[in-house]
Amino acid sequence: MRLLFDQNLAHSLVRRLDDQFPNSTHLSQASLETATDAAVWRWARDHDHVLVTKDHDFEQAVEFPGPPPKCLLIAVGNASTDDVEQLIRQSIADIDAFEHDGRRLMALN
Predict the structure, then answer these.
(1) Element (H or E) spanning 6, and its range?
(2) What is the spatial distance between Cα 86 and Cα 10, in angstroms, rounded to a whole number?
(3) Angle between helices 81-90 and 92-100 (to 10 degrees)
(4) What is the pLDDT along the chain (109 residues), one digit of tens a residue?
């Protein structure tokens, strides 16, 4: 599974989580720093990435045209990069199951 980390998450998560999620990308690496939510959504879908974000706007993104990509919503308040990394690592079994089930949105908290 490849992840696309949204602008609101540290780009260092790509490197820090590479052992579990190789070939992941941060928005800045895909030149999407100023892209709209719809453009980010399309990029994740078109490049077969799961979007990882803290942006609750993506909960409504199912209204964007076309089939949606999967989205991991980091549903914690002011969390450090270490906290986000730990949350994702603690949730790896759930994330693996999410990859293969029919859900499009999964909240991690």
Answers:
(1) none
(2) 13
(3) 60
(4) 999 999 999 999 999 999 999 999 999 999 999 999 889 988 999 999 999 999 877 766 655 656 678 899 999 988 999 999 999 999 999 999 998 888 888 999 9
Report field, pTM of the whole predicted structure over 0.85:
yes
Rounded distance between C-alpha atoms, residue 101 and residue 75, angstroms: 20
Task: Judge contact between 69 and 41, C-beta under 8 A.
Answer: yes
Q: Which residues contact 17 (CB under 8 A, 6 or more apart)?
A: 3, 24, 85, 88, 89
Q: Compute the CA torsion angle 103, 46, 75, 105 (nearest 10 deg).
A: -10
The ranges assigned to domains in the chain are 3-108
Tokens for 24?
């992941």
Q: Which residues have C-beta within 8 Å of that of residue 85, sequence separation ≥ 6? A: 13, 16, 17
The alpha-helical segments, DSSP class H, found in the chain are: 12-16, 37-46, 81-90, 92-100
